[in-house]
Amino acid sequence: MSALRWGVLGTARVIRHLVPVLHDDPRAALVAVASRDAAQAARCARDWQIPEAVHTYEALIARDDIDAVYVPLPNALHARWVIAAARAGKHVLCEKPLAVSPDEVDHIRNAAMQARVVVSEGLMYRHEPQTARVSQLVAGGAVGTVHGIDAGFTYGRTRPDDVRLSAALGGGALFDVGVYPVSYAGLLLQQAPVAAAGMAIVGPHGVDDECTAVLHFPGDVLASITAGFRASTHTWLTILGSEGTLLVPDPFKPSLRSVLTLVRDGVRHDEVVAGSPRLFAREVADFTATVLDGAPPVVTLEDSRRTAESLALIRTAAGLP
Asked: How close are the terminal C-alpha atoms of the chain, in Å?
């Protein structure tokens, strides 16, 4: 197989990031998009130049001319359709969060193993050179022993009909943008937290409009996590160590030219890291390399399980269902 034949399971706005990349990737062939609304599927296929519109999700994952499925559905539907696609023999790239509980990740992993397919959580930042360099610096002792992480993602959400405001569909700031700082902390520390403290502000739609938590990792490392829909757009990541501090700009959407700042003994060291000319292209290329070439996945199911554990601890600590 020289190229993966793709189907898109859903017509959410997030497909605007992946579909153009799939069109341009020489190892990808975009075959069809599915929606439970036939008119919506046809409209999406027309707008995004996708060859075929399919009326049901079941029909798309049953097709023999599709090898991989991209799942941008609401959070609460991820596990159901990732498992269904895997059991149909399809490789799956699923938008974050992969699942809304650790148990769901376990079910996904079992289905993927039984079907011998690749399932990966879509975390674009994990594929970017900036993230690789940050991980390298921390692992190499640039800040000494890590004692603390401060990370967050906020942005103003104003559309009252936004699916991210639906409790039934797994909405809320923590599941939407909290996944980023939580997963980054897990990446840097390579372990799951043992405890959490947290508080959340639940808005009129019944989901967390804002959530702040502290995760306690083995070795007495504390990670402060913030996710919110109320403040204007802002992202941050600071890594605090025994010998220095590393400041990471735009950690979850690295720019074409990022400047990492390492402060040691009061002296500032700046390092420029070249980013991707086109975000999400590396995510698709890495997924394809795992499927077609046997390359190790960048985001493993173990990573996703660790993230799900952290989110579950935070939700419990903050009194979220």
From this structure: 44
Q: Which amino acid is at 144?
A: G
Residue 134: phi, psi to the nearest 5? -60, -45
Regions of the chain short of the pLDDT cut 70:
none
Helix axes 78-87, 102-115, angle to 10 degrees: 10
| Burial class of residue 94 (count of CB atoms within 10 Å of its CB; 0-12, 13-18, 19+) | buried
- Residues marked as catalytic: 96
Question: Domain limits of the chain?
Answer: 4-123, 125-281+306-317
Looking at domain 125-281+306-317, its CATH class is: alpha beta
Intrachain domains 4-123 and 125-281+306-317 with the same fold: no
Please return the burial class of 32, using the count of CB atoms within 10 Å of its CB with bins 0-12, 13-18 and 19+.
buried
Specify the amino acid at residue 245: T
39 burial via Cβ count (<10 Å: 0-12, 13-18, 19+): exposed
Q: Residue 159, CB half-sphere, CA atoms under 13 Å: how many?
A: 5
Predicted TM-score (pTM) of the model is 0.97
What distance in Å separates the CA atoms of residue 243 and residue 261, rounded to the nearest whole number?
A: 14
Q: Fold for domain 4-123? A: Rossmann fold (3.40.50)
Within 8 A by CB and 6+ apart from 140, the residues are none
- List the 208-217 sheet strands across, edge first: 195-202, 208-217, 221-228, 146-154, 234-241, 245-248, 257-264, 267-274
- Rounded CA separation 45/160 (Å): 26
Number of C-beta neighbours around residue 193 at 10 A: 24
Give the tokens for residue 65: 């001319």
Q: What whole-number distance in Å separates Cα of residue 178 and Cα of residue 163?
A: 16
Contact 216, 310 (CB under 8 A): no
Residue-level pLDDT at 1: 77
What pLDDT was estimated at residue 132?
A: 98
Six-digit token pair at 302?
A: 């173990």
